[in-house]
Write a structure and sequence with these properties.
This is DM13 domain-containing protein. It comes from Acanthoscelides obtectus (Bean weevil). It holds the Pfam family DM13. InterPro entries: DM13_domain (IPR019545), Spindle_Org/Thrombomodulin (IPR052126). The protein is mainly beta and 216 residues long. The chain folds into 2 domains: 94 residues, no CATH class; 106 residues, no CATH class. 4% of the residues lie in helices and 37% in strands. It is built from 1 helix and 13 strands. A hairpin with a 2-residue loop joins strand 12 and strand 13. The chain starts with 9 loop residues before the first strand and ends with a helix. The C terminus is likely disordered.
């Protein structure tokens, strides 16, 4: 497509053959597109924990570059929670492999981790490396309240679209998840982020008599 959301003023489902507009959405000129947010590095407190600046890529995903940790904590995990600083009242976050095993050592690796379940960055105040057994914080980063990051895949809470066939052999995870419906659910706008661009897909539902007109 080669365009960014700021390069367009409207989106339409348009029939070129019959020059019919099935519906349109206008894009405000001052629209602010959600984007990743860069945070400070981990606070350095114990076990050689350090990193470069941490990024929140979307509402569930953290990118931690140049991560160092000696791996000697007996019961350490990525840990998130609420409050002014890390406490034992937190939630374990799976490592970059999706495992909840105690953390191994890291020697300057770049990793991504995702918040579990329905938890998002808007629900937490901090992320840390925390030893559950000894209730020790090895280092943490605070999460700002003014985030405006992209939604994560599967985060939008919409009912299955009208074109979804429950008997299909296509896995449900292959269906688009970033989606909005307009015009009484007759127009569906789906999008995904690719680098600094937004790829947009439109789907429309038309009446049977419109199909008859177009088939003539």
């Amino acid at each position: 497509m080669g365009k960014r959301i700021r390069d367009i003023r409207w989106i339409s489902v348009w029939c070129r053959r019959f020059t019919v507009d099935f519906g349109e959405v206008f894009v405000p000129s001052n629209i602010e597109v959600p984007k990743p947010r860069v945070l400070p590095e981990f606070k350095r407190l114990a076990h050689g924990l350090r990193s470069d600046n941490i990024s929140i890529l979307d509402a569930k995903t953290f990118y931690i570059p140049n991560l160092h940790y000696d791996g000697n904590g007996p019961d350490a995990y990525f840990w998130v929670g609420n409050g002014s600083e890390p406490t034992s009242f937190g939630i374990k976050v799976p490592n970059e492999m999706g495992s909840l095993d105690p953390l191994r050592s890291y020697q300057g690796e770049d990793i991504e981790i995702q918040l579990p379940g329905s938890l998002t960055v808007y629900d937490i105040d901090w992320m840390s490396v925390w030893c559950v057994q000894y209730r020790l914080n090895f280092g943490h980063v605070m999460i700002p309240k003014d985030l405006d990051v992209p939604p994560a895949l599967g985060q939008t809470k919409i009912s299955p679209p009208w074109w979804y066939n429950p008997t299909s052999t296509t896995p449900r995870t292959m269906l688009p998840t970033n989606c909005r419906e307009y015009l009484d659910k007759r127009l569906q706008v789906r999008w995904k982020l690719e680098d600094d661009s937004v790829v947009i897909t439109l789907s429309a539902k038309i009446k049977e008599d419109q199909l008859e007109v177009m088939s003539q």
